[in-house]
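One example copied in:
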Amino acid sequence: MEPVRFGLVGYGFGGRYFHAPLLAAAPECAFLGVVTTSAERRELLSREHPGAGAFGSLQELAAAGAEAVTISTPADTHSELTDAALDLGLAVVCDKPFALNAASARASVERAQRLGLPLAPYQNRRWDSDFLTVRSLVDRGELGTVTRFESRFERFTPEPGPAPSGGGTLLDFGAHLVDQALALLGPVARVYAEWRVRESGLDDDVFVALTHTSGARSHLAGSWSEGAPGDRFRVTGTTGSYVVGGPMDGQEAALIAGQTPATLGAGWGAEPPERWGRVQRGDTSEPVPTVPGAWQTFYPAFAAAVRGTGAVPVAPEDAVASLTVLDAARRSATEGVVVKL
């Protein structure tokens, strides 16, 4: 397959660590460069990706021959930049949160459909090692029928936190937490949520309880100010439970340390035995080898979609479904009500 000519908008934390290294490491993608006007970030780009260019606008990127682009900018710019890129004829990957609300997400999805362009939310956490292990256990029936899914994204960053840009912890961590819950257990019938507002004005210490149409329940927690993070997952079924603690999947740490799928090869995404989870059935407990993480599969799959030889790795409609739940969670936390969908 001829590599898809890919650009990136934004070279902050997400663009620098979560996107540029994976784009540069994927043979299916030709990484053209980054749209950024920051002199500091242009200097970083030139050092870290010497062959990549710096562009002043989406229009410049498109004129340089880009076929696809990833949006990795502050949350409140995602919809505007996604729509602008689509209007330029570019296939688009948009970082989470895909939009600030379900209505904006739906408008972008409909725009991509009208233009006949691939569009996908960047839900890389579907390929976390621990979540892949959960899906494997559930698919094999190792836990019986899942009745409760407990999932946490908890870290410790005391006040004041990042400046508001349209999203707090509900949209930041919640975008992944809700997406994983929907991917595992399907549609939601009822939503209840609580949160705390930090001095920065952003919501934090978020708890979201979902009742799925199947009858299963998801209990999701996200926090930037949790000094004692809980287990990453506890998944309860009719015949047993799977528990895995922290730290979280190691792919983020590897990328920050300068490693990529190209440098680590078959070792990419592997977790050591001391970080494996376990299946428990009362007094019995057995370790479960963790499935290797696979963030490196996202961009090759999206490139295949651009070439018309496969589906996008995450359907854009999934972003609408997640944001519908997050909209309901925002209302629940604000009004103190249970929201029916």
User: Anything to note?
Assistant: The mean pLDDT is 96. The longest helix spans residues 316-335. The two ends are 43 Å apart (CA to CA). The first strand starts at residue 4 and ends at 9.
